[in-house]
Design a protein that fits this description.
Oligomer: single chain
Order of helices and strands: HHHHH
Low-confidence stretches: none
Number of helices: 5
Shape: elongated
Number of domains: 1
Number of strands: 0
Structural class: mainly alpha
Length: 124
């Protein structure tokens, strides 16, 4: 089980206690937003790195098109993988041995990624 599967299961279990019918949808949305925040962080990092190295790889229009493509790909990939057999297998394999994150930790993970992206974007 990889890191994103553990995040999905942790968020799924946390939301299932309060909203059982919406738990799968919210967990899917959470994992997708987390992966997009991770892509945003690495995108800003490589953009700042390429500017300091004076590399001109993508213009603004191409960057928006690539970002939109990555977003659609991430949502489609997560939708395909977490709505079906894989989700049922993950839930059945989920035991007490696997690490579960608390709701506060899950929110802090996401906010920390966005905060690091913001700090990095404002860096010289």
């Amino acid at each position: 089980m990889n890191f994103f599967d553990r995040l999905y299961l942790s968020f799924f279990q946390q939301v299932k206690q309060y909203k059982p019918k919406l738990a799968a949808r919210w967990a899917l949305f959470y994992v997708s937003v987390f992966q997009l925040a991770l892509c945003l962080f690495f995108g800003i990092f490589f953009m700042k790195f390429s500017k300091q190295m004076k590399l001109n790889i993508l213009d603004d229009t191409s960057l928006w098109i690539v970002s939109l493509g990555i977003t659609v790909f991430i949502f489609f990939k997560n939708w395909m993988s977490y709505n079906g057999k894989k989700r049922n297998i993950l839930i059945s394999r989920n035991t007490k041995k696997s690490k579960q994150y608390s709701a506060h930790t899950l929110i802090v993970f996401l906010l920390a990624l966005f905060a690091l992206s913001f700090i990095l974007s404002n860096a010289v």
